[in-house]
Amino acid sequence: MKKLSYVLIALLGSISFYAQADVATAEQAAKNYALFAKSTLSADDGKAFYTSKQMVNGKNIACNSCHTDNPTNKGKHSESGKEIQPMSPAVNPKRFAVLNESEKGFAKHCKDLYGKDCSAKDKGNFIAYLLTFK
Ligand code: HEC
What we know:
Distance between the termini: 30 Å
CATH class: Mainly Alpha
Largest sheet: 2 strands, antiparallel
Strand content: 5-15%
Helix content: 40-55%
Order of helices and strands: HHHEEHEEHH
CATH topology: Cytochrome Bc1 Complex, Chain D, domain 2
Shape: globular
Radius of gyration: 14 Å
Bound molecules: heme C
Number of domains: 1
């Protein structure tokens, strides 16, 4: 997955420098994941992924355990209780604006939940779902 990150960073690097970070940047990030997945994206599949509970150390957790059911709201870390800024690019323009930050987030949380990084398709669907929130 490292290689994918580098190519995506190369693709998006120039964009995030010049364009203002906003929903369009997140849309572009989703499109790039779709390109790599060689697949169209599905917000419905993204929702299923977002809410799919995994057993981790005896606890059932999903992305929404920390990022909440409504990603326009602030999240809360399920373990530490620490506040997390909203995941929705509509209310938090920083989301998916800097690709290596997003890749780090995906890598970390996918590993926590699935023991490995998520696929480009899962990541694209995840962003597509987040973009349905205005
Ligand atoms: C145990 C709590 C927790 C869970 C579960 C969790 N996250 Fe996160 N997530 C965080 C925290 C904390 C951050 C970093 C703080 C921030 O970015 O505001 C974060 C950030 C991210 C980012 C970085 C976003 C960016 O700014 O580009 C992505 C992507 C992400 N998470 C995806 C996921 C996905 C996908 C899942 C489900 C497979 C998930 N997270 C589940 C706590 C969690």
